[in-house]
Write a structure and sequence with these properties.
This protein is an alpha/beta fold and about 375 residues long. The protein has a domain of about 100 residues. Helix content is about 15%, strand content about 50%. The chain is built from 3 helices and 27 strands. The chain has a 27-stranded mixed β-sheet that branches. A hairpin with a 2-residue loop joins β5 and β6. The N terminus is likely disordered.
Length: about 375
């Protein structure tokens, strides 16, 4: 059920192509050689990007085919069955849920109890066959010390067209771990540690505390009003939207979608996308470090602060800043408000590079795009 290896493998391939050579790397002095090196690097990045897009499209086509097959089968009769279970896990207990197919909704409540309500559904060719197949949809609940494990699936028939929709209430301080094969996951008001993972489905988390990881292969991720010390968010084929996140560090990645972070407090933030737009809006921590990188999308920084250190580079795009940027050393060129540059002129390896200080400097912001525009605006 885990998706972390597949997502990590494609993410590494997609996002390790740098814009500029590493510090200290030898640069060719011949302009023709520089141009040839830049073109070779551009071709290499495009080839990697095209391969990731091809894999993502193949995954999407497989998922569409499975959906069509399910929809065709669901023209036949459906049988359903209701399931309920109540137990105590304590105010800081743990819920661990694995669901093969179906939606999951988890909310917080008072007391020490966990309340599980679920609806099993099966589609078959006849009413009798659908009712008979209900027994093959298993919901197993195992109690441990201050914990409950829930497993839902169809162990004897992998091709069974069935799903289990869960609605669960847990103590507000409970720890929650959810793994879903196919279906959306929604978590609200849980203040304990949260981990949510889906193969095909959206993940939404609202008013949660100590969120650790939100991962999906195909679906969007939305996070709002959340606390964390360290958080990882990743999706292969969807957008990531984050608002009002308070964390020490955040690692955010998407292959085929936009990534937006607003009104959040983070000391360290890394946001990466292959084909989507990246936007960071709000205030920066005084000693913060922020890295935004997209291979073929625009990168936008919208700030309320005047004091920061900037390094922005693009190969085939422009860089625009509404803040006056003062050169950090003699090798760089200062840029005033509204300064526009185009990639392929100046910089290292054919990339446009804007580096310097806004105001008195402070948090370091690094912006990278291969074929997108970079903009730094006042909020």
């Amino acid at each position: 059920m885990t998706i972390s290896r597949a997502a990590a493998a494609l993410t590494i391939v997609a996002l390790t192509a740098g814009i500029a050579p590493a510090a200290g790397a030898q640069q060719p002095s011949d302009p023709a050689a520089v141009s040839a090196a830049a073109q070779a690097k551009a071709d290499s990045v495009r080839a990697r990007r095209d391969e990731i897009i091809r894999r993502r499209e193949a995954l999407r086509q497989r998922q569409d085919e499975l959906r069509r097959r399910r929809q065709a089968a669901r023209r036949g009769p459906m049988a359903s069955e209701f399931f309920t279970w109540v137990g105590k896990i304590g105010r800081q207990g743990t819920l661990d849920l694995v669901n093969a197919s179906g939606s999951v909704t988890i909310t917080s409540g008072g007391g020490d109890d966990v309340r599980i309500e679920a609806t099993k559904r099966v589609w078959e060719s006849t009413d009798a066959a659908a009712k008979a197949a209900l027994s093959e949809v298993r919901i197993d609940v195992t109690e441990r010390a201050d914990a409950v494990d829930v497993r839902a699936g169809f162990p004897r028939r992998n091709q069974l067209d069935a799903e289990v929709d869960f609605t669960i209430t847990v103590p507000s301080g409970a720890n929650v771990s959810v793994r879903s094969g196919s279906g959306d996951v929604s978590v609200t008001g849980v203040r304990g540690e949260l981990r949510a993972e889906a193969v095909s489905g959206a993940i939404t988390a609202t008013s949660v505390g100590q969120v650790r990881s939100l991962r999906t292969l195909s679906g969007t991720v939305q996070l709002e009003n959340a606390d964390s010390s360290d958080i990882t968010v990743s999706t292969l084929g969807g957008a990531v939207t984050i608002r009002q996140l308070r964390t020490r560090s955040a690692d955010l990645r998407t292959i085929g979608g936009d990534l937006s972070v607003s009104d959040s407090d983070a000391e360290r933030l890394s946001a990466q996308s292959l084909t989507g737009r990246i936007e960071l809006a709000g205030r920066l921590a005084r000693t913060g470090r922020y890295s935004l990188q997209s291979q073929s999308g625009d990168v936008r920084l919208s700030l309320s602060d005047d004091d920061f250190e900037l390094e922005a580079a693009t190969v085939n795009g422009t860089v625009r800043s509404e803040f006056p940027i003062t050169a950090g050393d003699r090798r760089e060129t200062a840029a005033g408000p509204g300064r526009v540059g185009r990639g392929g002129r100046g910089g290292r390896g054919g990339a446009l590079l804007l580096r310097g200080l806004s105001g008195d400097g402070g948090p370091l912001v690094t912006l990278r795009s291969f074929s997108g525009d970079i903009s730094i605006a006042r909020r």
